[in-house]
């Protein structure tokens, strides 16, 4: 019986591109029309062969690379062939980024220290640390490891600090950013509201403070707990028993620092104060 082979056509690789962090994994799948087809993967012009890091499955149509490195950044192509024809896919580019390690803990302004490590594989020619667009230089707060792989910052006291590490390897510069959110406060605490109001009036006292993250609030009245735990304290109808000293306490739940302020509230009719001390 005569077998008619169908020519190879429509060779494609999915996904068409991959943006990865160094040492992660990627799976590329090759599809094609045709009969009795075989698959061959190319990295630039070199054939891709199986290894402990490279796996070829599904008859060679699926390529899995674990622990990708910057040397895998050459374009990948899938070459499909059978006894009558062959075809090659469009190139698929894998983009590999550096891995910048840093502690996950929240940083407290003027109290926390941190270190950043720039990890990359291969023979690295240079590492340059950049802060806010300028080279990060040694100072009384900033120091570096001997190989410039790690930067130590002690303490952190800058707003929206952005640091990146540039690594120049084989004329390719890769960059990874990390931003620190400073933790501050509570500072500048105050109570906004009237110091006196007529009997029967609704009185609202608003406690404000500067805090990152936002502060938790609590109120005391004449030294006693009120069980009001937000920034707004409301007296629906002012009475003599509602006059006195209101204390607002703001607490930063990360730093556990707190700050308090007191407002004295009195009753009045017209220009005359009532319930005075």
Automatic annotation (TrEMBL):
SMART domains: IG, IGc2. SUPFAM superfamilies: Immunoglobulin. The keyword Protein biosynthesis does not apply. Pfam families: ig, Ig_3. It comes from the Eukaryota. Residues 7-97, 186-264 form the Ig-like domain. The keyword Cytoplasm does not apply. Gene3D superfamilies: Immunoglobulins. Keywords: Disulfide bond, Glycoprotein, Immunoglobulin domain, Signal. PANTHER family: CARCINOEMBRYONIC ANTIGEN-RELATED CELL ADHESION MOLECULE 20-LIKE-RELATED, CARCINOEMBRYONIC ANTIGEN-RELATED CELL ADHESION MOLECULE 8. This is Ig-like domain-containing protein.
